[in-house]
């Protein structure tokens, strides 16, 4: 299960969303550096494009995630968002 450490959500069609390979994610939650939830997805399929739940663009920064795999395992990590 590969989690990249960065996306460049600038609309050029390259690396605009967080694509995970080799795993099935039942839920993933993204947090800012203060621990505030900024977005979450059930049955994740590469939807996060550096926006909030309301569709607002997040600033360039490091964001953290907690992902629950289909088998119940949890993975945590970070991703740097650049524009």
Task: Explain what this protein looks like in three dimensions.
This protein has strands at residues 6-8, 25-31, 37-44, 61-69, 74-82. Helix content is 0%, strand content 43%. The radius of gyration is 12 Å and the shape is globular. The chain has 83 residues and is mainly β. The chain has a five-stranded mixed beta sheet, with no helix packed on it.
Strand order, largest beta sheet: 1-5-4-2-3
Number of helical runs? 0
Order of helices and strands: EEEEE
Number of strands: 5
Helix amount, in percent? under 10%
User: What structural category do the secondary elements indicate?
Assistant: mainly beta
Distance between the termini: 25 Å
Largest beta sheet, briefly?
Answer: 5 strands, mixed
Contiguous low-pLDDT stretches (5 residues minimum) are none
The radius of gyration over CA amounts to 12 Å
Principal-axis shape equals: globular
Please state roughly what percent of the residues sit in beta strands, choosing from under 5%, 5-15%, 15-25%, 25-35%, 35-45% or over 45%. 35-45%
Give a short synopsis of this structure.
By secondary structure, the chain is mainly β. It has strands spanning 6-8, 25-31, 37-44, 61-69, 74-82.
Short key terms for the protein model shown above:
single chain, 83 residues, mainly beta, 5-stranded mixed β-sheet, 5 strands, 0% helix
Which helices and strands occur, and which strands form pairs?
Layout: E1 6-8, E2 25-31, E3 37-44, E4 61-69, E5 74-82
Parallel strand pairs: 1-5
Antiparallel strand pairs: 2-3, 2-4, 4-5
């Amino acid at each position: 299960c590969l989690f990249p450490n960065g996306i460049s959500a600038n609309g050029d069609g390259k690396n605009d969303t967080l694509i995970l390979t080799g795993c099935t994610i039942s839920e993933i939650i993204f947090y800012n550096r203060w621990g505030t939830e900024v977005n979450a997805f059930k049955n994740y399929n590469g939807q996060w494009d550096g926006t909030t739940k309301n569709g607002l663009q997040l600033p360039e920064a490091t964001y953290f995630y907690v992902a629950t795999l289909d088998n119940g395992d949890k993975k945590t990590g970070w991703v740097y968002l650049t524009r």
